[in-house]
Amino acid sequence: MTVTAVPSPTEHPGYSEILPREPMSAGIARRLVRTALAAWNLEDLTVDATLVITELVSNAADHGRFPHIRVLVSRPAEDRIRLAVVDRSKALPMMRTDSNGDQIRGRGLLLVDALTERWGTELYPWGKRVWGEMRAESHG
């Protein structure tokens, strides 16, 4: 696993990794999130943050176009983390709110919405970044 540390405005390095666009990459993404949160002494966010990154990776695996995705974990403010997945598809994520009990999949963004303070999509000419931000109760 090659992790790239990138500068951030909070003086805490961000973490970035290119992974295969497949569901099994969610495990590596969760490990990256746990590593970042441990480095930042924010382990209280681990359970929710690993659920969020799992859903973001799963969406990219299902809807991305190229064979790789980029997972990013950053700390844009002292009391905030940002989890993001970049893929080469410009298709916007859709939050499913239907109540069809037969649909097992397709509701991951509801979980992202519930567990993050805010989330969104940034479009680029070649694809998009889907992200969610979480606020830390305590930070170090």
How is the largest sheet built, in terms of strand order?
1-2-3-4-6-5
* Whole-angstrom Rg: 14 Å
| CATH first level | Alpha Beta
Strand content: 25-35%
| Total count of strands | 6
Q: Say what the CATH topology is.
A: Heat Shock Protein 90
Query: What overall form do the CA principal axes indicate?
Result: globular
* Poorly predicted tracts of residues: none
Q: How is the main sheet built?
A: 6 strands, antiparallel
How does the helix and strand content classify structurally? alpha+beta
Q: How many helix segments?
A: 3
Mean pLDDT: 86
CATH superfamily: Histidine kinase-like ATPase, C-terminal domain
- Give the SSE string: EEHHEEHEE
End-to-end separation in angstroms reads 26 Å
Describe the structure.
By secondary structure, this protein is α+β, with helices and mostly antiparallel strands. The chain has one domain: Histidine kinase-like ATPase, C-terminal domain (Heat Shock Protein 90, 2-Layer Sandwich). 29% of the residues lie in helices and 31% in strands. It contains three helices and six strands. The longest helix has 18 residues.
Keywords:
single chain; 140 residues; alpha+beta; Heat Shock Protein 90; 6 strands; globular
